[in-house]
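Hey, sorry for the delay on this. The queue was backed up all week. Below are the sequences that define the complex (chains, strands and the ligand SMILES where applicable).
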Amino acid sequence: MFIETKEIGPEGLIVSRSIDAFRLPVSDQDSIRVDRVQLSGELQRDQDGFSFAGRIETALTLSCSRCLEEYSSPLDLPFDLFYTTSREGGARQDSRIDEEMATVTHFDGARIDLMALVSEQIYLGLPLKPLCRPDCPGLCPRCGTNLNAGSCACAEKRTEDPRLRVLKNLL
Ligand SMILES: [Zn+2]
Ligand SMILES: [Zn+2]
């Protein structure tokens, strides 16, 4: 899915697109499910490129790093990008763009790749340690029971054993 830069008039271009659900590869073997994406924003012509600010709204299916269950995580990502054909990275050191902390993307000048934009922004927005909920108790280290579903038989022993209590404090 692309936007041709010739569609961008002197007044700019309002962008509102939806992208079907897809899988985003996160490693050689692994990918995550991305729900239908709503991309909205505004493209503006600039002296040596195009500024594109907007937001990406979707939901991801992630695996909880504690209990390993899959859960849906809503995502609302603002982005602020600058597309340029200029390769002179050093020359724009003091420019307005750097002050605004926009991410500079080099492109061929003809069209903006929305799929690449969405994939990259979602990838950057992925949590390092996904949790189904902030206080997820995870799996019992002894028997592997998912403690979200209830306590296991190990629970009583665990509170009795002082060594495990020390360990629990460290966690
Ligand atoms: Zn969890
Ligand atoms: Zn257990």
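The chain is about 20% helix and 40% strand.

I'll add it to the shared folder too.

S.
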